[in-house]
Amino acid sequence: MEKTMKAVTVYGPRDMRIEDVPMRPLKRDEVLVRVAWTGICATDLAIYTGESSFVKSGEIRYPCRVGHEWSGIVEEVGESVTKFKKGDRVITDNGVSCGECDNCKCGDRFGCTEIMSVGTINCWDGCYAEYMYMPECHTYPLADSVSLEEAALAEPLSIALGAVKKYEIRPDTTVAVIGTGSIALGAAALASVKGAKQVIVIGRKDFKLEAALKCGATHVVNSTKENAEERLREITAGKGADFVIESSGGPKTVEEAMRIASKRGTVALLAFYERTLDAFPIDTLVSKELTVKGVMGEFGLVPEAAEYLAKGLPVEGMITHRMELAEVPAFFARSAETSGERIKALVRIRP
Ligand SMILES: [Zn+2]
Ligand SMILES: [Zn+2]
């Protein structure tokens, strides 16, 4: 009898199904991993609704086995696998290289020209599933001190880490983070453990700002109640933030990021805006001599992000929802209703 597993596929906008799908044979360099926890990402939701710019551009195509934030336990290893055995707890990269292009052959697997992103562009089957197939070279052991649940946050944390690495944080650095999603709070936590003097998180919901304080923010500003620019000036004694991470994705917040940055400050933009900006504050950028960096997230930072988790990075406060795999389609269907109360929702698959 053929082996099957439960997996979630998005067939088109708002058409998500849990199905029994056949399990293929394991390749010799692959690890078969029983998925423990999967994180629900805004990208997954945008693929589900069809609003993702990558769906519109045709770079993400239906049917799509979504999901790229996860942790698991090794079930079986291919014949050439040496680093893992059944029962090992693991995390993985969010992309899978081809192993055959020139870059791969030179050992630069993150420069792979044919890279398949897990659950998104050029889709490698994603992790709303009972099992994942991953090449050994993209799989990493998980430290005992990190729970499988928190390990599902390693991928979004790796995106936050990609942003935080855009600036050399020193003991006198003030970092401002606009946004209160899991990547924003991850960036605040990382800036804090990297030793920033002040970490200021700007958001619109008090309970998310409370979570930011638990993640290591020194100050929080609710921009629906206070003038963020004035508050920033107050907190930083008039100087502004040396490093601003804009993660909320609103056109207004790009402008805000420029305004709250200090002279010669750096602004990192790590959201998708899905539109052109009419009011880009170009003169603010010029007169303050700002550096603006786009952050797409890098392949390869997941294990480094997991090291921060192993050292006790405070992320527990960002997990707001937990559910079973069977509940996923209904949760996606009403995701707009829960967005105000959600930071990171996790799916318990087979921990
Ligand atoms: Zn994600
Ligand atoms: Zn390649």
TrEMBL record:
InterPro entries: ADH-like_C, ADH-like_N, ADH_Zn_CS, ER, GroES-like_sf, NAD(P)-bd_dom_sf, Zn_alcohol_dh
SMART domains registered for this protein in UniProt: PKS_ER
The keyword Ion transport belongs to this UniProt entry's keyword annotation: no
Cofactor section: Zn(2+)
UniProt-listed PROSITE patterns: ADH_ZINC (PS00059)
Enoyl reductase (ER) domain segment(s): 12-347
Keywords: Metal-binding, Oxidoreductase, Zinc
One MF annotation (Gene Ontology) recorded for this entry: zinc ion binding
Claim: Ribonucleoprotein is one of the keywords in the record: no
Pfam families xrefs: ADH_N, ADH_zinc_N
Domain of life: Bacteria
Family of this protein: Belongs to the zinc-containing alcohol dehydrogenase family.
Protein name: Alcohol dehydrogenase catalytic domain-containing protein
